[in-house]
Known about the structure:
The chain has a single domain, classed as Porin, CATH 2.40.160.20. Helices cover 16% and strands 52% of the residues. It has helices at 2-28, 62-78, 288-292; strands at residues 48-59, 83-85, 92-94, 103-105, 112-122, 127-150, 159-186, 189-215, 227-237, 240-251, 255-265, 267-269, 274-275, 298-300, 303-313. The protein has an 8-stranded antiparallel β-barrel. Strands 2-3 form a two-stranded antiparallel ribbon. A two-stranded antiparallel sheet has the order 12-14. Strand 6 (127-150) and strand 7 form a beta hairpin. The longest helix is centred in the N-terminal third of the chain and has 27 residues, at 2-28. The chain is elongated and about 90 Å long.
Amino acid sequence: MKSKIARHVVAISILFILPKICVGGAESGRFSGINPQQLSQSQERPQLQFFLNTGVYQPSLKQFNNAIKAFNETMTTTGYTGEVDKSYAYNVVIGAYPANGYQGSYNELEGETWYGGGVSYFLTPKLKLSLSISSFKAGAVSSLSSTFWEEKYYPEVSDWKTATWRVDESVRIRPVLLSALYQINVLGKDNISLYGGGGLGFYFSMLKNTISGNYGDPRPYSSTYDYQLTNNFQANTNPIGFHAMAGLNLGWNFIALNFDVSYHYAQGNIDKWNNSTLMEYYVYGMAKPLMDILNVKKIDLGGLLVRGGVNVNF
Length: 314
């Protein structure tokens, strides 16, 4: 958590310090390519504005977080019915629930760093259209394990076994947004303004579940069901969403700083999860209905974004 906060502070500090360096350099004459008067002269109507920003996005992702919670509760308390796999020398129960259950912990997907940039076109000195492309990624890990006595028939030897499971969840969102923003000067100053507006766009998203299992020590050419397995599930959803924002703009005609807060609404539907695993769902310690808990059919990608950035006007 501390390293995450540190990254945000460093990124935003760079964005806020860089314009001051440019202004100071121009006014002192160190940057020969910039006329100091460019920063102070009134520019009636800038045509284009390029911007970069970074911040923290806290999406809902409630379906995903509810799924991992239900998955862990089922593994630790409920149990489920296994299936008999007759391809082994003995009738092995695939997906059987250990008598003493699984123990472990799980983490929910939380807010992470948002990076973005784009271009704005001024329709009037106070009204502009902005096109932005951004990137956000969040991940969480859950771990479960169970140690139990396994009875085997001769010539196999009964012994203690440990089954462990690790579930990695990740969500990547790449919004492409079109916004209409209107700004008004405050405190009677041209270089301080408030702005607000909203818009719509596509929230291109990829969801991934990786379920890694380890049961005992794999032994080649053995008819027993020791194994190591990884199931990879991936799905894409690209919903149209909406957003509204309000912020503060501080700067000069050539370069400016901004800080804003926005809320995003985007609901994604998932028709199919792609499974890249050659071995199918039915493995010792986990059955298909349990794994399907994680593969949600809907996802709430909306949430709150707090960010800071720098604008360059032309």
